[in-house]
Structure formats: C-alpha cells, structure tokens
Design goal:
The chain is built from twelve helices and 14 strands. The protein is of the alpha/beta class. It has two domains: 136 residues, Rossmann fold; 183 residues, 3-Layer(aba) Sandwich (Rossmann fold), CATH 3.40.50.180. The mean pLDDT is 89. It is found in: Cytoplasm.
Length: 343
C-alpha cells in the first residue's frame, strides 16, 4: 500500500512531535519530515516532494499565509492549515483558504483533545491527498459570468434548506450562498470546521451575500433570509414548535469523525422538516451526510448532490448517491437555481 507522505510545518516543537507521533499510528500515512519555519520547509518540499503539507500560520521569519501564496504559485501542493483556537487565528485561516489551502484544523488544547485532533487530521490528510490541484487552481480562478440570471423567489412559507460540506466546502458554500436572494427560505449549514473558525467563516460569508449569514446559537429561529452555520465542535439539530422552526446547538460524540456532523443535521431535518425541506450535499471526504440525506428523501424532502467534476473531493456526494438518497446531481454553480426550482 502506497502511503500518503506528509510534511509538518510548525514552529512549535511540541506540535511537530504530537502530529508526528499521532500520525505514526495510521497505516496509510507517513510523516516524511518536519520543519520549524517556511525556509526549512521550502528545501524539504523540493527534496522530498510530499503529498500533503500541514502548515501553521504564525511562524518566525515568514508567516504561513505568505508562504502558502508562494507555494501555490511555484509548487502547488495540498495544504492543511493548522492554527490556534483564537478569533484572530480563524480570520487568518479564512485568508489561507482564499489563498488555496484545502482545509483547516486547530491545534490540540483545552477545547480540542489530542484524540479528536488525531482522528480528524488523518481524515483531512486523506482527503487532501485526493485533491486535483490543477482542477483546484481552475476553480479558484473561475469567475461567474456577469450576466448570470438573478434568482428570485415569490413564496417562502415553511420551507427549509439544509446544506452539508467538508473538504473544499468553504469556497463551494460561498459560490452557492452568494446566489441566493434576500427572501430565500431559512438555511442551515454544517461545514466541517473547528470552533472559532466557523465564527470567522460566517462573518466572511455575511459580508459577501445578499442573505444574512451567522454562526448559529442555541434557540435561533430558522427564518427566510438567514443562513445558520453550525458552530465548530458542536452539533446542530432542527426542532419545531408549532409553526416555528428553530435549532438546538449541543455537544455529543463525534459522528463520522466529525462534530458538527452533517448526518446529525440531516436526520433532524428528516424528522421535523419532512417534505418542506431541500437537502444539499457538497464536496467533501468520507460518508458524513449520506444516511441522513437518504432519511430526508424518505421523509419527502428533495435532495441535491454536487457533481464530481466541480467537487474538490467527490467523497460525501458519491456516498450519498450510492446510498440512494439523491434526486439530482448538479454542477456547483447550478445548485442555487435547482434549489429554487424545488422550492
């Protein structure tokens, strides 16, 4: 079995040691080297040609964002950003995603155990190793035509949209949400992302979209014109009281190695939303969301999966299709229009 070769770049000797030790337990992953800063990393990348790089953002001599931009220009590789659980770190991570990083993970600490980190890091590395960097570059460079039709919606009563995404999802979600008009039915989103990173991500989307985008809080109502993003490290579930839809934010075990998990959201939407809902599953590694989407379809919801050509990683959509839970398979930029037709 060919192993995924990883380079760990971090100025913390402790982090380099923890990542190397934890990843050594994975049979399909090998840490071929570590580096304390981008200058050492550059030489090791040229010499060793790793499959995936984990990269800290705050380092001496050169910050990770600057190094990432240089790497994407001269030696594009799948990069997973590693940062601390701080709001500032979250904002930097979002800039890194805009600059070409594949995914983000936080360093272990009080709110994030070594065990949780290890399982998620291994999954993210596997996902990153499957990314077609040439296709990724084309996606980042793509611009939707200025004359693209504006979406509109005349009736929004009691409708819901539930979206799940993972690897590559930050850009995919931006492309989808930016097309929705202000009176779009209430949206609930699970994007695999650690705590505080979701805060920065929601703020970034809110600044770009016609709809309001916010990190969900327990008890938030699901209302037209607003998208609720599940906070990192917490599951989000739909509930209903009379005619009012709202969300509960809760802890709980990892599901499909994730918290928040798409399956947790989709299962609750199947139970409380039924035929009033549309489910969308976007790019991502693994099978999170597949069984939940099937339950949504069985409950009368209409469902959409992103197609393989436009996915960064065609894992979650593929599993949902294989499970029989998908009504339509659609290119990324056509998904908002298809959602509106279903509504």
């Amino acid at each position: 079995m060919k192993k995924i070769r990883v380079l760990v770049v971090d100025d913390s000797a402790v982090v380099r040691k923890v990542f190397s030790e934890e990843l050594s337990y994975e049979k399909d992953i090998e840490v071929v080297a570590t580096a304390p800063d981008p200058y050492v990393a550059r030489d090791k990348i040229v010499a060793l040609k790793p499959d995936v790089v984990t990269l800290d953002v705050e380092m001496p001599r050169m910050d990770g964002i600057t190094f990432l931009k240089k790497l994407m220009r001269y030696f594009p590789l799948p990069v997973i950003i590693v940062s601390s659980l701080t709001k500032a770190g979250g904002a930097l991570a979002m800039e890194a995603m805009d600059s070409g990083a594949i995914d983000v993970i936080c360093k272990p600490g009080e709110a994030y155990s070594v065990g949780d980190m290890s399982a998620q890091l291994a999954e993210k590395i596997r996902a990153a190793a499957h990314v077609n960097m040439a296709q990724r570059a084309l996606h980042l460079a793509a611009v939707r035509p200025a004359n693209a039709p504006k979406l509109s919606l005349t009736k929004t009563t009691n409708k819901l949209i539930a979206i799940g995404a993972s690897t590559g999802g930050t850009e995919a979600l931006k492309d989808v949400l930016m097309q929705f008009p202000p009176n779009t039915p209430g949206i609930m989103i699970v994007q695999h992302m650690p705590a505080n990173f979701t805060t920065s991500f929601a703020e970034r989307l809110n600044s770009l979209c016609q709809i309001r985008v916010k990190e969900a809080q327990d008890g938030d109502s699901v209302v037209p014109g607003t998208a609720l993003l599940a906070p990192g490290n917490f599951h989000m579930v739909l509930r209903r009281s009379g005619a009012r839809y709202y969300v509960n934010i809760k802890s709980g075990p990892l599901v499909c190695y994730q918290r928040p998990a798409v399956d947790v959201l989709f299962n609750s939407v199947a139970a409380y939303g039924g035929a009033n809902a549309v489910g969308v599953i976007l790019t991502g590694m693994g099978k999170d969301g597949a069984q939940g989407m099937l339950k949504m379809k069985e409950a009368g919801a209409q469902t959409i999966a992103q197609d393989e050509k436009t996915c960064v990683v065609f894992g979650m959509p593929k599993e949902a299709i294989a499970a029989g839970g998908v009504d339509k398979v659609v290119p990324l930029l056509d998904i908002p229009g298809e959602v509106m037709k279903m509504l």
